[in-house]
Write a structure and sequence with these properties.
Length: 185
């Protein structure tokens, strides 16, 4: 990674965390309902969501409402793409890497639709994550095998003027916030 881009991402990430924390404190509004409406268009598809941590917007109500298999990410190792273990409401969970909760057991799934957590996003559909590159590697691999839809889930306040990008950064197909849905072509 170019040192200038890495530094710019780190500075941008700090500001985006502050904005996300403030938005989280203000409440999530209709975000989960809007996400569930979007996911209704992918009925029967394998969905990967995430278990919210800290001030991440909560996708669990939309994941629970999904008509089809649902998985959550499992970090296999540094520099590796994510894998997805099947999740259902009430599943036994254990703590995984970085404190993320993951199912204690379950089948491995190959998702066609992903709800992607993020720190910030821009109007071009790029996201700023935590800096590990897990979702970029994962989306690249999934998209090389089959059609994959990446849906960013965030607060409006997380929108940035422009996310610093590199050639390995994967664009999102949609962003769902508490006020609406944005699609990128």
């Amino acid at each position: 990674m170019d040192a200038d881009v890495k530094g710019l991402k780190a500075i941008t990430r700090k500001a985006a965390f502050v904005a996300r924390s403030a938005a989280f404190a203000a409440g999530q509004g209709q975000a989960a309902e809007l996400l569930a409406d979007v996911l209704a268009g992918y009925r029967g598809k394998v969905l990967a969501g995430y278990m919210p941590m800290r001030t991440e917007i909560d996708p669990l109500p939309a994941m629970t409402a999904h008509d089809g298999p649902v998985g959550v990410p499992v970090i296999i190792g540094k520099g590796q793409p994510l894998r997805f273990r099947e999740w259902t409401p009430g599943a036994a969970l254990v703590e995984g890497e970085f404190g993320a909760m993951i199912p204690a057991e379950g089948a491995w799934l190959d998702p066609e639709v992903l709800i992607v957590p993020l720190v910030g996003f821009d109007a071009r559909g790029f996201r700023l994550g935590y800096g590990g590159g897990f979702y970029d590697r994962t989306l690249e691999g999934l998209r090389s095998r089959h059609q994959t839809v990446a849906i960013g889930f965030a607060f409006d306040a997380q929108e940035l003027a422009q996310v610093p990008t590199e050639p390995t950064d994967q664009r999102l197909d949609l962003i769902v916030t508490e006020t609406g849905v944005r699609r990128f072509s």
